């Protein structure tokens, strides 16, 4: 239904919008009114196909009846319960469901409400784990250039996107960064994982030499870089990081806030790449983005250390008022069930070649200088206009919306990552609309 009563400019002012150019937005707002399946309806009644799964969240598309019903039912039954000192049955069920789909001995689950909270939780667990083991000097954290790990102080400290860091003071002490494992000269336009580049992981050895392993608690990476513009790990890179961290007793954290729960056709990137980290952080698709939720999954030996090495009472002084919120849990249980019942991960596996071919079909499109993809994740690098970062990509983003396609903008990159239930026709429609968009931008 079309809103007959659009918001006036003065009504738009009170809301300080996140990661948004507020002034530009409020001068020309883009308002979404409803969503069903793969389509949003805007306040002026236009249909816009969701080429970005909301913000990498809506794996099942929007308004899946089983998820909606589960939330509705739970709201009428137990709308809130503290997780401090109390529990509710579905939270334990969900922890088991999540542990079951995670690889190897990643089998204990700590609930949060966002990706940022998952990251800060994982970093704190890593430092506390070493301390409990008598390794209290292991406090240093290693991230990576261009990494995105949310917006908490821990996350921006290990993160490597300069605008997310430079305004916010000196951040956490004792953090260092590995180089970004990407070279356009050898990797541009790779469909899937680049064949060369595993040696970027050896830079971690240099950081270990510099700081000494005895000071390093954890290394955190996105197995596939998401927010900085979808960069795929070279073959052998993650394996090498695993070898080096294991050799030096450093915990390896995979930040799977985007990649967990089907984006790459598996429950985790860890499963897809057959590399088992010590900790996995998740959020977003865990419950189809319907109610804020994240989860941190840790290896048994980490959980056991907390249980065995603390002297009674609270083992981890950490948690959130809304940890394991009943509505979020209900939505997650329903979502996880649908992933299985509807073969959602299998759909991604089956259609990944079609998705990759459709993306690379735009290789010669105007302005495109690189295309990267894996699973149902892809990004296009758009040539800068007059050397201004993001100026043309921003025009592409705006034009796409005008033409009925929602994409994700990040600097000079446009990410396309549709819901995991997309079929061939959806994929073709999305990339066709994107091709028309590129052609229409100067
Ligand atoms: C890898 C990664 N970590 C953390 C986050 C932060 O998640 P949130 O926005 O839910 O705090 C994101 C969000 O996109 C992400 O992609």
The tally of helices reads 16
Assembly type of the chains comes to single chain
Arrangement of strands in the largest sheet: 4-10-9-8-7-5-6
Strand content: 15-25%
Instruction: Count up the domains.
Output: 2
Q: Identify the CATH homologous superfamily of the largest domain.
A: Type I PLP-dependent aspartate aminotransferase-like (Major domain)
Give the names of the bound compounds.
Answer: pyridoxal-5'-phosphate
**Which shape, going by the Cα principal axes?**
globular
Task: Report helical residue fraction.
Answer: 25-40%
Mean pLDDT: 97
Low-confidence stretches: none
CATH topology of the largest domain: Aspartate Aminotransferase, domain 2
Radius of gyration: 22 Å
CATH hierarchy class name of the largest domain: Alpha Beta
- What profile does the largest beta sheet have? 7 strands, mixed
The class by helix and strand makeup works out as alpha/beta
**Span between termini:** 34 Å
Number of strands: 15
CATH architecture of the largest domain: 3-Layer(aba) Sandwich
Protein name: Aspartate aminotransferase family protein
Organism: Gimibacter soli
Cofactor: pyridoxal 5'-phosphate
GO molecular function, one term: pyridoxal phosphate binding
